[in-house]
């Protein structure tokens, strides 16, 4: 079969060019032309000749009012790994397409091999398509993971058409593509991993999933910035996008849901890498808290919210005398927000750090994006500057505004109950988050402003 011609389409404006150019001739944007299969010209005359008075060739379709459509819950199949099911929203969805990305060697293939083996043992046929390894290498990994007598079917192939034909003949319930960057289609002449190949292969696999009900899991490479490699449209085509996070030198891994059409976003699953693969961590707060025999200056425990799960994370700050140009460095927190909080401390609480180096770290490699960490960051900086530790069993949360006010955080009751369950006894929270009924085991102090919170903490020393 002759290969179809390809055209180059601008990812910014959609303009086309018959050949690649450095600059788009339509919008003058640089390096935006990507190769795509050209539409077939066969049948064009017939399509135009059948147009009606309106000039459209297609026939009108029946429409249905939204209220008349039956709303049914999506059926889910547990993957056998509870932490992965939490991130997916309850399990694998029939016909769903999941894209999972992460740094090389972080555990993507390990986790998916464990998941498809568990599904196979539950009676769901699974197909593991590997384009980066041979079947012998996958079998060797399964032996290391302790997956004895695994009946998961393995296909070592990178040509898309052969993969689709195999799926049609074997009819698996779940297909894992490891990875989408190694696949290529005969319809395009570009090399595997190019933007056109990645988009074309993902589109065909998504179409197959929706038409046959086969759940498809795509493994994606990431760029040096940490984003998924390939076109951004790849994330829009799939139903769920998961990111693997964590340091490859640490044994703990986080799987975070960035997009999920069948569940909540920003859910996280916490795993520990062991000799037998990835194991779910039932109490993730324990890995984000340092074990100090006595409270130390500059340490403050924050109750953050990751999806529907409250997590206790330790925020550490170190304030040291700096030179003429003091440094501000944060790990796991937004650096610009740290600069803003230091300005608020100076203006509204009288705590000056203009000539000090300030280093802030979220313990355990977790990244905190919510503003409810503001109050914990400010109290840890103040504690390090004074050289006085916060009280034992102390936790806090709350957003701080530029005017010095402490704003409430969402779902404050759940945060306080989680802290009380783990043995924390003292809490400083925004006044709007103060519970109407006392929570057993924890003393709660409500504050309205930053200076009030710092004065209150000094009285608790």
Q: Would you spell out the secondary-structure blueprint of this structure?
A:
Layout: E1 6-10, E2 16-17, E3 33-37, H1 44-49, E4 76-77, H2 82-88, E5 92-93, E6 97-101, H3 108-121, E7 126-130, H4 135-144, E8 153-156, H5 160-170, E9 174-178, H6 195-212, E10 215-220, H7 233-237, E11 240-245, E12 252-260, E13 268-274, E14 277-280, E15 299-306, E16 309-321, E17 328-331, H8 335-349, E18 356-362, H9 374-386, E19 394-396, E20 399-400, E21 406-407, H10 412-421, E22 426-430, E23 443-447, H11 450-460
Features:
461 residues; Ribosomal Protein S5, domain 2; 3 domains; seven-stranded mixed sheet; 25% strand; globular; hydrolase activity; ATP binding
Beta-strand portion reads 25-35%
CATH-level-4 superfamily name of the largest domain: P-loop containing nucleotide triphosphate hydrolases
Please report the total strand number as a whole number.
23
Question: Biggest sheet, strands in spatial order?
Answer: 8-7-9-10-6-11-12-13-14
Q: Any idea what the radius of gyration is?
A: 27 Å
CATH class identity of the largest domain: Alpha Beta
Return the structural class: alpha/beta
State the CATH topology of the largest domain. Answer: Rossmann fold
Measured between the Cα atoms of the first and last residue, the distance is: 80 Å
Question: What is the overall silhouette?
Answer: globular
Tell me the major beta sheet: 9 strands, mixed
- Provide the domain count: 3
The CATH architecture designation of the largest domain is 3-Layer(aba) Sandwich
Protein name: DNA repair protein RadA
Family: Belongs to the RecA family. RadA subfamily.
Region (Lon-protease-like): 357-461
Motif (RadA KNRFG motif): 259-263
């Amino acid at each position: 079969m002759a290969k179809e011609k390809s055209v180059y389409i601008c990812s910014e404006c959609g303009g086309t060019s018959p050949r690649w150019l450095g600059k788009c001739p339509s919008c003058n944007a640089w390096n935006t032309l990507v190769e795509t299969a050209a539409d077939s010209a066969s049948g064009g005359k017939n399509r135009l000749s059948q147009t009606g008075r309106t000039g459209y060739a297609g026939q009108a379709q029946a429409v249905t009012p939204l209220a008349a459509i039956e709303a049914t819950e999506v059926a889910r199949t547990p993957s056998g790994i509870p932490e992965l099911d939490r991130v997916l929203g309850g399990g694998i969805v029939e016909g769903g397409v999941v894209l999972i990305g992460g740094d090389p060697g972080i555990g993507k293939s390990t986790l998916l091999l464990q998941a498809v083996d568990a599904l196979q043992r539950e009676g769901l046929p699974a197909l593991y398509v590997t384009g980066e390894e041979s079947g012998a290498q996958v079998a060797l990994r399964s032996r290391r993971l302790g997956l004895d007598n695994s009946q998961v079917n393995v296909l070592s192939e990178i040509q898309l058409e052969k993969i689709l034909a195999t799926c049609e003949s074997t009819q698996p319930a779940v297909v894992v593509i490891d990875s989408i960057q190694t696949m290529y289609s005969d319809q395009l002449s570009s090399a595997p991993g190019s933007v056109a190949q990645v988009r074309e292969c993902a589109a065909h696999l998504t179409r197959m999933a929706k038409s046959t009900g086969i759940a498809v899991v795509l493994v994606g490479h990431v760029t040096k910035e940490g984003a998924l490699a390939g076109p951004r449209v790849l994330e829009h085509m799939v139903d769920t996008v998961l990111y693997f996070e964590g340091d490859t030198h640490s044994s703990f891994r986080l799987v975070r849901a960035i997009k999920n059409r069948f569940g909540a976003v920003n859910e996280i699953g916490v795993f520990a890498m062991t000799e037998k693969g990835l194991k779910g961590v039932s109490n993730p707060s324990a890995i984000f808290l340092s074990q100090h025999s006595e409270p130390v200056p500059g340490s403050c425990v924050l109750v953050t919210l990751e999806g529907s799960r409250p997590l206790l994370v330790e925020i550490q700050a170190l304030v040291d005398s700096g030179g003429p140009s003091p440094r501000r460095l944060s790990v796991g927190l937004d650096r610009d927000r740290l600069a803003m909080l230091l300005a608020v401390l100076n203006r509204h609480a009288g705590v000056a750090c203009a000539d000090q180096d300030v280093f802030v770290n979220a313990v355990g490699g977790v990244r905190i994006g919510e503003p409810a960490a503001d109050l914990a960051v400010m109290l840890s900086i103040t504690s390090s500057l004074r050289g006085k530790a916060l009280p034992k069993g102390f936790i806090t949360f709350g957003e701080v505004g530029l005017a010095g006010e402490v704003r409430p955080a969402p779902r404050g009751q759940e945060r306080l109950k989680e802290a009380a369950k783990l043995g924390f006894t003292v809490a400083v929270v925004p006044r709007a988050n103060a519970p109407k009924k006392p929570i057993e085991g924890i003393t709660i102090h409500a504050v309205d402003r930053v200076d009030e919170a710092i004065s209150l903490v000094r009285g608790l020393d």
